[in-house]
Amino acid sequence: MRIVIVGGVAGGMSCAARARRLDESAEIIVLERGEHVSYANCGLPYFVGGEIADPAQLLVQTPRSLRAALNLDVRTRHEVTGLDAEERVVTVETPDGTERIGYDALVLAPGAQAARPPIPGLDSPRVRTLRTVEDAIALREQVETGARRAIVLGAGFIGIEAAEALARQGLDVTVVELAGHVLPPLEAELAALVADELRSLGVGIITGIGAAGVQRGVEHDIVRLGDGTLLPADIVVLSAGVRPDTAVFEQAGARCERGAIVVDEHGRTSLPGVWAVGDATVSTDAVTGIRRPLALAGPANRAGRLVADDVLRPGAARPIPHPVGTAIVRVGSLTAALTGANRAALDAAGIGYRTIHLHPNQHAGYFPGAAQLHLILHLREDDGLLLGAQAVGAEGVDKRIDVLGTAIRAGMTVEDLIDLDLAYSPPYGQAKDPVNLAGMVGENLRTGTLSLWYPQDVDRVLAGALVLDTRSRAEFATGHLPGALNVPHTELRERLDEVRAAAAGRPVRVMCASGVRSAIAHRVLAQAGIDSASLSGGILTLRAALGDRAAELLRFEGATQDA
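RESULT FIELD:
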């Protein structure tokens, strides 16, 4: 049996390796149009930044090593330019000319190309993408030959990693993002923490506006933004997303949606004897059901293995699961990660949900090095099913998001998190791990033990409710909402009459630093018959969600309203 695989890296090479392990007699040909068939594309920014010193470290396997270990016929600089599915033949442009290669089974793993929006001037030699080893080497050469100013167009995962890498090399870096905040998949209140960390690294941030053009110059280029701002640049990194590289196969009759190849649960395309895998295929989101391409290495790698199973063991292969979309990025001293759906995806899918914010320590507070973990969970409104989770923090983010991603895959509800038996020792966690704690908060919310209000409610709350701030007097003086009454939570029981008088029949909306003390106060108020709700995530979340508006809205005088 001859299996031809178009494209290497994650999906293609995973499929090729699994196919060989299943069938020693199969002829397996891998056609890769680039110079490298198996490289660490996720490591490219770290080479640009100097943390990976030798580009050879980016090469996971070579054609020679793959021939020796797995007896794979890997052909680099072989670009597939045509497909005849009826004759089961692909047309290939090679260094020695055009060749036609027949197959019994064809697996398409062409990946995606960097998206190039219709911006004049992107053909400048100073404009680079960061998708291949050659891209990374070229960027590093520009850095080492005197580049001092870099503009990164796009603040997604790769854009953020590129910005940090260039800043690490001493360049003056500015990130330009068309969306309203950096890392658009992240919720705004967590993205604000990432933006602050980028600024601490010396990276400038411009959001809510895009590039309108790149003007080529002799000594440097000029990036012109949509509002007329001009930014000089020795390097321009284009990181505006990716698009599936599928034109050849769509022309051959493969069914596509939004430019991506449509496949069934085993990776089979609409063409007989043809499978597809990876960034170039349509994925169905496990939470929302929305269909779209998903450019993540993990799902592509695992799907490649399952496609090989279906090619060689039809009828026995497990179906390819719908991806949860777990992703993570390092930004300076912080880590940001997410899994499942965010608000925008849930809103687009019309799914009702509730949100909780927590700011627990990543390990026991009495153990040195304790630091806050900023955590958001979305749960389905009717039954508490976990829909999505995000976290930002200095430590422990990866552990919690991996657990929560597993919980989403397992179809757990927020209450199920309470009973997860997670490893505990003071240097690593808490007896009530942040994941367990999230379950407890979620259960309280679903049972009515806790009522929440959110930063987006602030104007309505200020107009029609009494804000009760349960922080200490010193904390209150560092910034509070206008008209707020400051009653530390330890004094609340003795001052309930004062709260009633100040509320004058209005509902009471409670807040503190992170939501813990206000939740305690809420229980006191609710059991005293007062209409009460606690600010989700406290003023930590409020400040992040308000962004620049926080300085205008918050008051910084002493606790003058404290009776």
